[in-house]
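#struct-pred

JT: dropping the chains for the assembly here, can someone run the whole complex?
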Amino acid sequence: MTVRTRFAPSPTGFQHIGGFRTAMYAWLLAKQNGGQFLLRIEDTDRERLVPGAIKYLVDSLHWLGIDYDEGPNQADLKAINEFSEFAPVEAGKVGPYIQSERLSLYQKEVERLISEGKAYRCDCSSERLEIERLEQMARRERPGYSGYCRTRNLPAGAKTVVRFRLPDQIKLSMNDAVRGVITWDNPPLRDPVILKSDGFPTYHLASVVDDHYMGITHVLRGEEWLPTTPIHILLYEAFGWEKPVFVHLSHILGPDGKKLSKRHGADALTQYEEQGILPEALLNYVSLIGWSVGSGDEQEVFTRDELIQKFSLDGLNSSGGVFDPAKLQWMNGVYLRSLSSEKFTELANKYITSCPAKSWEIIAPHVQERIKTLPEIIENIEFLCLNDLPREMNAIFNKNVNKEIAKQVVEVVAQKFSSVAVFTVDSIHKALEEVVAESGLKTGQVFPVVRIAVTGKKATPPLSESILALGKEKTLQRLAEMPALIEAYQE
RNA sequence: GUCCCCAUCGUCUAGAGGCCUAGGACAUCGGCCUUUCACGCUGGUAACACGGGUUCGAAUCCCGUUGGGGACGCCA
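RK: done, full complex below.
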């Protein structure tokens, strides 16, 4: 059996990391089995549509390296003003992949249901329904449609919706790939609207119809869909269609343990990009929330291919997981350090514009080892870019270094450096060591003072390399600036 | 309120009845390396929510309690 999975987001805002994790798992499952992964846009809620949301979805998927085999192509997106260069030029034969373009299909299927008595029209106004609901709540009854139009046999009309007729007694079970058998014995469900008065389907109808016609074999979605799964099962049965495998994923939680959502602690993917998180690291980290390779294997860092190879539904966890930014940062550092110097420089590009190329070349490997996210490059190379260097002067002084000694250090070092013909890491290092040997000053007195003099900071890349990157002229200049600063320093 | 799901270190997890004195990773604390910081290496603190069963034996199976989450829309 060919595995076909899909990611079916609604373009009602920016999709957060939880949604993309669902997409990733679906993609992983399809790729692993040589199947297809599709993108379907569920734009049936006309009121909440957000312009640009579809483009954001397509761009983000591409950024993460999740490419879809079937879905809206460039022309489709252009037609609705959501063009993305990252969409495929051609993709898929069971489209359209945008639900607003499949209206006639849904309407046709609904007619079938109505003619078979499995669905009916309803003209109850939403205002009336709302009042009804409030009253029920007030009476502490379970809220829901009363069933007023069930037997009225209403003809098609301007203001009508179509409801799916649910059995009076529902007892059914389903074998979820994550949770095993789940049984419902009379769940609190009322006849749901499947076709709205504007002619658009609701999720229940559209997703079932599309999953069927698009040949979806595994439905991966968030566990918020679990309570309404009986509706979907009943719909499959009403249509006489084969059901897919359901895979209800546990939620990604915010720091407070509540479901991550657009309104709650979630960031758009572009935020991570801006924060200098690599897509590979994000993908890898997020894959670990709710999934583990298991079987005693303790691997956590996976390449994309390893993920495709090792992913399995069995490794999916049924409990929700908190998103831990600290671990993401750590993993990003791991990925950053594994980069070739060429690739690292390429990614660093936007942060090093004011740094001389030669200096960057010298300092880059040391910066690479020290950062967890790209923007941290800035603080590491600041001393190479700035003319007017801010210095953490207070870091110079301690019980071993007073103003007198500090001045002595910069003076001796400057003198020594002047006599070094060619600056290399070795010659600089040797010069520094000679200062220590000849002046009677201690290493712990010399290096910290020079570090502040040259870089302004107490935590920096290695001193000799930093000095080499700065160059002899500027180094001597910075040393020369020190006596006045030392003198002026007040605690 | 009703229904559904979930429950191992602070966090992500391993664990499919004896391999568990519960393993790993992040975070945290300490040591080593070292001119700082970082990397790396190394050691430590730290968990089976509770109560009943079942069993020779339970983190693992069953029931209940508690706690958390989710759903109850002409939203998805």
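JT: nice. Residues 164 and 313 of chain A are 32 Å apart (CA to CA). DSSP finds 19 helices and eleven strands in chain A.
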